[in-house]
Specification:
The protein is of the alpha/beta class. Helix content is 39%, strand content 20%. It contains twelve helices and ten strands. Strands 1, 2, 3, 4, 5, 6, 7, 8, 9 and 10 form a ten-stranded mixed beta sheet that branches. α2 links the parallel β1 and β2. α10 packs across α12.
Length: 333
Amino acid sequence: MVPLPYRISRRRALQGSAALLLVFGVLVWWLMSMRPSSPSGSIIFSTGVKNGVYQRYGVLLKEDLARGMPNVSIRLRTSEGSQENITRVATGDADFTVATADAVAKYIQDGRPGADRLRGCARLYDDYVQLITPKTSDIRSTADLKGKRVGVGQERSGVRLIADRILTAAGIDPQTGITPVPAGIDTVPGLLERDELDAFFWSGGLPTEAIRQLSERFAVRLVPLDAALITALHSSDETALRYYRSAEMPADAYPAAQEGTAVPTFAVANLLITTDETGAALTEGFTRRVIDSRDGIGKQVHPAQLVDLRTAIYTDPLPLHEGAKHYYRSVKP
């Protein structure tokens, strides 16, 4: 017969194993319950005009989000640009968008509807202000635009906001000092080629594909926007103007147009924005995908490569959304 102490030890061992399995099962259940559930639902992402950087970025981001957040249905809506994008998000007509910091600051400064609900998710890449004219043009500075036919962007675009400010800083009335043409990047290249414009403004990441293509089929030149213009802008009482900084378009941004010469201009940051009513889990997941997709999307839309985790948290003038905060804490070294 088996000795009694051995029989007791075996029973105790079995009981101990069962207890350990029970504890392990409870621990697994607890850990699974603590994991954030995958976001689900449907969202609207407001982009920009056809052929613009916002629209191309949005299309590629949607593809990435479909892989990384499979339970979220995403619909893109084109827009005239930053000003319309901000209005849509602030008033509930869109859930996420990209807009320039100066346009966001202007919206807040003007006390527009829903301004207090706006929240930042990430600082993305910088837009560079670009003034394009035919190579044979006599336009050498913004002052030379007086009396000319100038593409100033659509009414609710960030381009319009900047163009009006530049013209004013140069001593030109945006309405009467030029013939303003309210057209976007989807149409202004063709207007310039057909001699229906003398110049046009654009604000976007470098390079903007529509301008690159234009420069390769039609001789154009980039008009310098120098430091004196920045000084004139900053001298205004408008607080939104502090979001402009002096910059240079590198010589290889548009090789056919620049002929190896860097062009002075100024830049303004783009922000990924939402509102305080967007769920934390959804915002965290969306922000994560935007940061993680930068290299993949950047192969087709170069500005996306410039998204930097170290600076993404600086979404001034907007406070960070709680979901975005969770993301940045989770990846902090």
